[in-house]
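Morning!

This is the sequence you dropped in the shared folder:
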Amino acid sequence: PLDLIRLSIDERVYVKCRNDRELRGKLHAYDQHLNMILGEVEETVTSIEVDPETDEELVKKATRHVGMLFVRGDIVVLVSPPLRTTG
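The structure's back. Tokens below.
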């Protein structure tokens, strides 16, 4: 499994994290604990709030862009490498 991540160095990857957090960015480095350094990161945080008047669930997404980000491996749920096309 770590070999697949090794092949994704300098490629854009999708990282799903705990607490409804998603990252998309260029993978610069990683280690055996899945600590990662990502560049040109788009972070999306999804939150669900309940409207007190209607008891309706409201899904909110907040997005921010970060130039360089260190991701601690213990929050990583999933890493998806870029799609590869056969040619």
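Headline: The CA atoms of residues 49 and 58 lie 5 Å apart.

More detail when I'm at my desk.
O.
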